[in-house]
Design a protein that fits this description.
single chain, 756 residues, alpha+beta, six-stranded mixed beta sheet, three-stranded antiparallel beta sheet, 21 helices, 15 strands
Length: 756
């Protein structure tokens, strides 16, 4: 896990009481607090599903700030794995009806978004127990089955499908459940070492467990295809007779008790078979099925894997947003040498730094809106569009999890050496995402399947003629990306037709590169469509303009890699290709002042962020001092602070400032504002400015306005120009009038540019 919390005063205004998870049992989800910055509030409302925000996200957002979810240093891998099970019970304790929860795709996905950044092992356990295990029971005939042991977590559920030598070809699994006509039950058996179930969490960690096991149903020596069987694995005394479990070595990422599991003619009662329309066993031992095809029966049996893809996407999406929040906040408090002797400026002022973060932000917004669209469609799917939705979920899972890995890796690098420490909330995220990339279908494999279906089975969304426009016009840019998809689909079709006859593998080998590029373009196009649709929704014109510009940045980056193809086919002109780099640079300059607003909209709890050193103006030194004293350290100077901070300040502030405040707070200020300003302001807020204004914000400006273009009423700003008089200078600098309030000395302002 990667997030640390503590009981210090929260960094931010209007934060509701952060209840310990034990206080949340049976209580309604708390309302999400209104963000101080109005634009960030509008964006958060849109990102987190509007009117459904509290119901789907509120409980989990509140829980991750509780002490039970705090960062725990120095735990052994076994202790960390056990801790994830303890946290699973805390999650379960707030659910009125876990079975109904398992049947709600929106709430299930939302859970993973919030716990992903906190505990990768917990994310794995929750996906397995609620989705794969409990969801499979809910989706099949219940026969009045008593689920209370599972909904109360007296027994944890797990899911056994993949076998040691049958991963990507799981349909070829060997485990069998042989029907016994005498008893009416089944003998579950692992016939070879290769057929051992690979990586389920079946150890004794976490208490007694029951599994849903995928096995071939054998009736009178005839293979009827793969079905699911409810199988007790252990009790308080250990594993049951006929069940053998070997713990696997530690893997990368947060520890989970992954194991090898096999069965030796384990007898199961008749009720163990999970039945539905795809297969029911009559009293006389005859199988009736709505599906005559064994492969279709198999896919229907493990249907919950599709929802699992959405859970994996959600978990990694939350990790990407957390990484960006930490990296952007650190970029505004981390000072580096400026152009003049003795000058210190925030690293966020550099184009080489903020461009990479803005590109990642644009992608993260696109990932979020795509995920919302796919979950909506999955929740409303019918049998008629099931295959299409399953393919869309697979494509989205591949793209989102791959992008999440790239984003968290980029953010870790942008945090320098501080990003290497797990206590700073970012170091473990890339490794945890690796599990999501492989789980519920290896990304490349599920994309290959989608590609094979789409070469001829998909109609490109490319328009017959591009709409009139230029590089600032969203419909025009969208049309270019659609042409990219069409170009690669045409190439894949040609390659398949011209491939070596009589050699299916050879034909696909010459086709796959183009086909996979088509899938990639399709994923990005669907994300762009979801992003563009969302950008039109805010009622606030400032939020709408900011989203539109961010969507434009996303589209331009997707097109940038394909200008040669678009130019060759006449979709772009040479002048447009030559103008693209400058267009991108101008757009980045316009967006740079608003990075803090964009990450504030990710709505991570202030209490959580205040406990992450580099997300709240500190460094790993604070964690060292906490370890020495057992309490939150209050004496670490801010990064780049000059000598002379007064004693007792939380972080370079005057006495009485909240712990974790950024440099220069005055007594009673939340962080970096003058007395009476809302808590949570970053350096340099002037009297009357809303919370979280950045360095150098003008009096009366809305919270968070930054250098460069203000969003009319002043959206969040980062480091701005120094004022001749009044508050806003950095530590130790003297002003003609007014005391310094935490802005940074010698900050280079970002050039002002108007919104187009």
């Amino acid at each position: 896990m990667t997030i640390m919390t503590s009981g210090v005063p929260a960094l931010g205004a209007h934060v509701p009481h952060q209840a310990d998870p034990s206080d949340l049992t049976g209580s309604p989800a708390p309302s999400a607090p209104a963000l101080e910055h109005p634009v960030a509030a509008h964006l958060a409302h849109l990102l987190f599903e509007g009117a459904e925000r509290d119901r789907r996200h509120g409980t989990w957002r509140a829980m991750i700030s509780g002490h039970a979810f705090s960062y725990r240093p120095d735990l052994s891998p076994a202790d960390r794995a056990a801790l994830s099970y303890d946290r699973l019970r805390l999650l379960n304790g707030v659910l009125d009806d876990p079975a109904r929860f398992a049947a709600d795709p929106h709430r299930l996905a939302a859970l993973h978004e919030w716990i992903g950044p906190v505990d990768g092992g917990l994310t794995t356990l929750a996906s397995i127990h609620y989705n794969l295990f409990l969801g499979s029971l809910v989706d099949h005939d219940d026969k009045g089955r008593d689920l209370s042991a599972f909904t109360s977590l007296q027994r944890t559920g797990t899911f056994l499908c993949t076998e040691l030598e049958h991963g990507n070809d799981v349909a070829a699994m060997e485990t069998v459940a042989v029907h016994d006509r005498t008893s009416g039950g089944f003998h579950l058996h692992t016939p070879t070492p290769a057929a051992r179930k690979f990586m389920p969490n079946t150890s004794l960690t976490g208490g007694p467990k029951t599994a849903v096991v995928a096995a071939r149903l054998i009736l009178d020596d005839e293979d009827q295809g793969v079905f699911l069987f409810l199988t007790p694995l252990s009790d308080h005394n250990g594993h049951l007779p006929g069940v053998t479990v070997h713990r696997l070595p530690e893997r990368t990422g947060t520890p989970v008790d992954h194991s090898l599991t096999s069965f030796d003619h384990l007898w199961l009662p008749r009720q163990a078979l999970l039945e539905a329309e795809h297969g029911r066993l009559d009293p006389d031992g005859t199988l009736t099925s709505s599906l005559g095809n064994k492969r279709k029966r198999f896919l229907r049996s493990i249907n919950r894997v599709t929802m699992g893809k959405l859970c994996m996407s959600a978990g990694t999406l939350g990790m990407a947003r957390a990484a960006l929040t930490i990296a952007v906040r650190y970029a505004h408090s981390r000072l580096v040498a400026g152009p003049r002797p003795g000058e210190r400026i925030p690293i966020a002022a550099h184009r080489s730094h903020h461009t990479r973060l803005l590109d990642a932000l644009a992608t993260a917004y696109a990932m979020t809106f795509l995920h919302r669209t796919v979950v909506d469609r999955f929740a409303a799917h019918t049998e008629e569009d099931r295959e299409e939705i399953e393919r869309l979920a697979a494509i989205a899972k591949g793209w989102i999890t791959w992008q999440a890995r790239d984003i968290t890796t980029e953010c870790r690098e942008r945090c320098g050496a501080q990003g290497l420490f797990p206590a700073n909330g970012i170091a473990d995220l890339p490794a945890n995402i690796e599990g999501g990339i492989t789980a519920e279908g290896d990304n490349l494999v599920i994309w290959v399947k989608a590609a094979s279906e789409m070469v001829f089975g998909h109609r490109s969304a490319a328009p017959d003629a591009l709409p009139a426009g230029d590089l600032t016009d969203l419909p025009f840019l969208r049309g270019l990306l659609a042409q990219v998809e069409a170009i690669w689909q045409a190439r894949a079709r040609t390659a398949l037709r011209e491939g070596p006859s009589g050699d299916p593998v050879g034909r696909w080998n010459v086709t796959s590169s183009a086909a996979l590029e088509m899938v990639s373009a399709h994923a990005r196009l669907r994300a762009a469509d979801a992003f563009a649709a969302a950008a039109e929704q805010p009622a606030d014109p400032r939020a709408r303009r900011l989203l539109g510009s961010l969507c434009r940045l996303f589209l331009l980056r997707q097109i940038d890699a394909h200008t040669g193809d678009l130019l060759a086919d006449g979709h772009m002109t040479p002048d447009q290709v030559r103008a693209l780099p400058k267009t991108l640079d101008t757009l980045v300059a316009d967006l740079a002042p608003h990075m803090m607003t964009l990450v504030d909209a990710f709505d991570f709890p202030a209490k959580m962020l205040s406990a992450i050193p580099i997300a709240s103006g500190g460094s790993i030194v604070r964690t060292m001092r906490e370890g020495e004293t057992g309490t939150r350290a209050e004496t670490e100077p801010p990064l780049g602070a000059v000598p002379g901070s007064l004693p007792g300040a939380g972080s370079g502030s005057l006495p009485g400032a909240d712990a974790g405040a950024v440099p220069g707070s005055l007594p009673g200020a939340g962080s970096g504002s003058l007395p009476g300003a809302d808590a949570g302001a970053v350096p340099g807020a002037l009297p009357g400015a809303d919370a979280r204004s950045g360095p150098g914000a003008l009096p009366g400006a809305d919270a968070g306005s930054g250098p460069g273009p203000l969003l009319e009423a002043g959206a969040r700003s980062g480091p701005g120009p120094l004022l001749e008089a009044g508050a806003g200078s950095g530590p130790g600098a003297l002003l003609e009038a007014g005391a310094g309030t935490g802005s940074l000395p010698g900050v280079v302002p970002v050039p002002e540019r108007g919104w187009r």
